[in-house]
Amino acid sequence: MTMIEEPEVRAALPRLNEPAPTFEAVTTHGKLRLADFEGSWLILFSHPADFTPVCTTEFIAFAEIYPELQKRGCELLGLSIDSLYSHIAWVRNIEEKAGVKIPFPVIADLDRKVATAYGMVMPGESKTEASRCVFVIDPKGILRAMIYYPLSVGRNMDEFVRLIDALQTGDEHHVATPANWRPGDKVVMPAPNTTELAEERAGEGLECIDWYLCKKSL
Amino acid sequence: MPCVWPDGSLSTSGRLLLASVHPDSTADDVSAITGIPLYRVRSSLRQLLEAGFISEAGGRYRQTEEGVTKVKLGG
Q1: pLDDT tens for residues A65-116?
Q2: With helix as H, strand as E and coil as C, how does B5-22 read?
Q3: Which helix (H) or strand (E) holds A143?
């Protein structure tokens, strides 16, 4: 008898600048839909499992940056492939043991619907857990950034705040932001797309390395 | 957070939310009055709507007779 292996079903990853996959999910704050966050920025992030060490440090760190995110009109929404009661027990345990209240909802994605829609499970790492994924969704529901971390590396919270600042600055001023940009730093002007504009750029009083890389203060 | 329990009674936040639904309120109005984040207000309004305590037309909410009674009786 020949063994026929079933082909592995690979979920398509969401794409940048396209509508984020919609969902309705059970969370620690009740049943929520993606549409409930319309009008706000949203960081949807997954973690491998409740009651695990790196994830606990991350949840505490996410709770710490939440006030900064709120100032920027940004909400947080966690997710793991765990039960609602595990989530409730874990966030209560974090409050009891670490003195940190988790202020954001956490999706209990036992049926993996949301994890699959967002490509959060990386079978090469784990077939049963979500990796450390981060999706930034804008107020119109468009997916604007995706970051994936492996199971063994806790995330850098400063980067998420910086990322929201950079996206909001880019949207407001129609500019890009250079490497390691922080609010207050100079921003990058869009590169000229004609030879005429390239020549004009030189006389615009900007800080230019060359015609294609010019910065200005906001 | 569930604001309507399976037996039809309201949670504390559910009572607060229902009492804050004045005629022609929007979700933003209710969020501003209660201080509850907008995403949670939207979710809770959906529950109150399903339970028949409020009605909705064009994104504006009002208490139904059943909702008014619920508020009077304290949930």
Answers
A1: 999 999 999 999 999 999 999 999 999 999 999 999 999 999 999 999 999 9
A2: CCCCCECHHHHHHHHCCC
A3: strand A143-149
Bridge partners (DSSP) of residue A136 are A43, A145
End-to-end Cα separation, chain B, in angstroms:
16
Interface ipTM > 0.85 = yes
Full residue range of the structural domain in which residue A113 is found: 24-173
For residue A56, being part of any structural domain is answered with yes
- Chain B CB contacts of A40 under 8 Å are 38-39
Amino acid at A10: R
Distance CA B27, CA B8 (A): 22
* Amino acid residing at B48: L
Give just the sign of the alpha carbon dihedral A205, A207, A209, A213.
Answer: negative
User: Residue A188 maps to which CATH number?
Assistant: 3.30.1020.10
Domains of chain B: 12-73 (1.10.10.10)
The two tokens of residue B40 are 């949670």
Phi, psi of B72 (to 5 degrees): -60, -40
CB contact B69 to A (< 8 Å): no
Looking at the domain assignment, is residue A45 inside a domain? yes
Residue A209 DSSP label: E
Q: Is A55 a catalytic residue?
A: yes
Per-residue confidence (pLDDT) for residue A42, from 0 to 100: 98
Same domain, A85 and A180: no
A158, amino acid identity: D
Residue A91 lies in a domain: yes
- How close does chain A come to B44, measured CA to CA in Å? 8
**φ, ψ for residue A35, nearest 5 deg:** -60, -20
Q: Which residues contact A189 (CB under 8 A, 6 or more apart)?
A: A175, A201, A206, A214, A215, A216
Together in a domain, A100 and A142: yes
